Amino acid sequence: MIDLRLDEEHEALRKTVQEFARDEVAPVIGDFYEREEFPYEIVAKMGRMGLFGLPFSEEYGGMGGDYFALCLALEELARVDSSVAITLEAGVSLGAMPIYRFGTAEQKQRWLPRLTTGEQLGAFGLTEPGGGSDAGATRTTAKLDGDHWVINGSKAFITNSGTDITELVTVTAVTDVKPNGRKEITAIVIPSGTSGFTVSKKYSKVGWNASDTRELAFADVRVPAENIIGEQGRGYAQFLSILDEGRVAIAALSVGLAQGCVDECLRYVGEREAFGHKIGTYQAIQFKIADMEVRAHTARLAYYAAAAKMLRGEPFKREAAIAKLVSSNAAMDNAREATQIFGGYGFMNEFPVGRFYRDAKILEIGEGTSEVQRMLIARELGVG
Questions:
Q1: If you write DSSP's letter for every residue of 103-149 in order, what string do you get?
Q2: Averaged over 367-384, what is the pLDDT?
Q3: Could you tell me which CATH number the domain at 123-234 has?
Q4: 41-90 pLDDT, tens per residue?
Q5: Residue 198 pairs with which residues in a beta bridge?
Q6: Which CATH number is associated with domain 8-121?
Q7: Which end of the chain is more exposed for a tag (fewer CB within 10 A), N or C?
């Protein structure tokens, strides 16, 4: 029989992050969210706990764990706040992982030790203004000039790209166009502070207000030729591989938000009275919460299944897309129902469910829209 119980190490990690989220994040994150301020001290504490190094080997300052450990941490953080969770997810999955998976030994030694300990953050620049889900429509260019690449273009919606501790951004750029018109896309690291690399002011966002998201511009940015990550011309393919893993991570984050909605509602319905009774005594409320728990539970099973195939080294593209689709739907539906249960208080940012509602929608968009997930699932089934 299948055993879905966590082993001792994973359960210990889950409990540790749960306690951290409850005791360290929950009491203060609302103020950061309201001020739209990046929570540097919380991120530093996460670094000291080793969360940024969970899936990386000890050789590079990591914890020697696996990707599932990262997913468990993301779920527990997102039960309290998604801004903190997405900072960890993007720092690991998009900032450090491309270097870990595809970088040279020298690149890993140069950049990973600070990224895996959380001292510095990395970001990944793929999406471009006007590009949206069509990540292959890259317009940013990189031309070789002697022993340097000269990069021109822009990127949009880039997480962790403009904090005081951002060390680098890996960007995709067109390095050649073949006679048949096919673009050769390559991943290149641009260190923060490089001349010509401009980071815009923070976006005014609907949600994730305590995370860092910006637009980037490159005007004749020069970086050494050896800053290429992986093979020249393989940048897009490399990122698709990274994105499959990232979808499992986003699924875990989504499950955390969905479960957080259940947590908050269970507390609230035991306190709130209406028409002379605790509202938890009304069947309409009971059914809402039961449906919310079902969504969170089934979404968790979906990301567990995808993570299991990933760790076994088996193809998991379809399972990752299923997990991302199911869990983001669960997060959005649960946030809506939780807001309804809380009534007017659910519309207030001071209550967690208000933040959950604002944070949930992006989960159906980021790292592949729900429509993209359906397209991937259909393709994996041989349809179209």
A1: --HHHHHHHHHHHHTTSSEEEEE---TTTTT-TT----EEEEETTEE
A2: 94
A3: 2.40.110.10
A4: 999 999 999 999 999 999 999 999 999 999 999 999 999 999 999 999 99
A5: 217
A6: 1.10.540.10
A7: N
Q: What are the structural domain ranges in the chain?
A: 8-121, 123-234, 236-380
Q: Give which of 69, 78, 24, 54 is closest to 296, Cα–Cα.
A: 78
pLDDT at 1 over 70: no
Instruction: Check residue 317 and give left, alpha or beta (phi > 0: left; psi -120 to 50: alpha).
Output: alpha
Residue position matching structure tokens 């029989």: 1
β-strands 183-191, 277-278 pairing: unpaired
The predicted model gives 231-255 an average pLDDT of 94
Structural fold of domain 236-380? Butyryl-CoA Dehydrogenase, subunit A; domain 3 (1.20.140)
Residue 194: CB atoms within 10 Å: 16
How confident is the model at residue 181, as a pLDDT? 79
Q: What's the pLDDT at 165?
A: 97
Q: What is the pLDDT of residue 269?
A: 94
Contacts of 382 (CB under 8 A, 6+ apart): none
Q: Which residues contact 362 (CB under 8 A, 6 or more apart)?
A: 206, 207, 208
Whose structure tokens read 């166009």?
Answer: 177
Distance CA 339, CA 112 (A): 41
Asked whether residue 192 carries a pLDDT value surpassing 80, the answer given is: yes
Q: Which residues are catalytic?
A: 367
- Taking the CA atoms of residue 266, residue 26, residue 34 and residue 127 in that order, the dihedral angle to the nearest 10 degrees is -90
